[in-house]
Amino acid sequence: MTESKPPEPHDHPEDVTQHVGYLLKRAQAALRGAMDKVLREHGLTVPQYATLELLALHPGMSNADLARATFVTRQSGNVVLRGLQEAGLIARPDTADHGRARPARLTEDGHARLAAVQTAVYAVEQRMVEAIPPKRMAALLTDLGHIATALEE
């Protein structure tokens, strides 16, 4: 039986601004700032927009599922859903058929608002993607997936 050696520790640059984690956070903050700017013009926040996108793809998602998928707590997810419902962008039953889940769906106004904002949000993503040489995009996406999986374990 052969024993495997533990991986060598990663050499960290002395300058923290060159660490992988720092650069990932910087990119995430820049993306969030750019999205906040375009979404503000449409009266939406990033979690609200993400919720609309997800409900367009998967009508009937529960608050818990939406919160997980939009990276917010269940309590914050409920606040997002209430705000979208008050704005007439989503509809939820007043009571749950079973358990506590009240499945949400987009209203006509919700579909219209989502369509109106998608062009602006997709333009932000396009600006981000254009900074990466096309031949490296597939590897970047794979690497980001590996990073997320390694940290979720």
From TrEMBL:
SUPFAM superfamilies: Winged helix' DNA-binding domain. InterPro entries: HTH_MarR-typ, MarR/SlyA-like, WH-like_DNA-bd_sf, WH_DNA-bd_sf. It holds the Pfam family MarR_2. Signal peptide: none annotated. Residues 17-149 form the HTH marR-type domain. PANTHER family: HTH-TYPE TRANSCRIPTIONAL REPRESSOR YETL, TRANSCRIPTIONAL REGULATOR, MARR FAMILY. This is MarR family transcriptional regulator. It comes from Streptomyces olivaceiscleroticus.
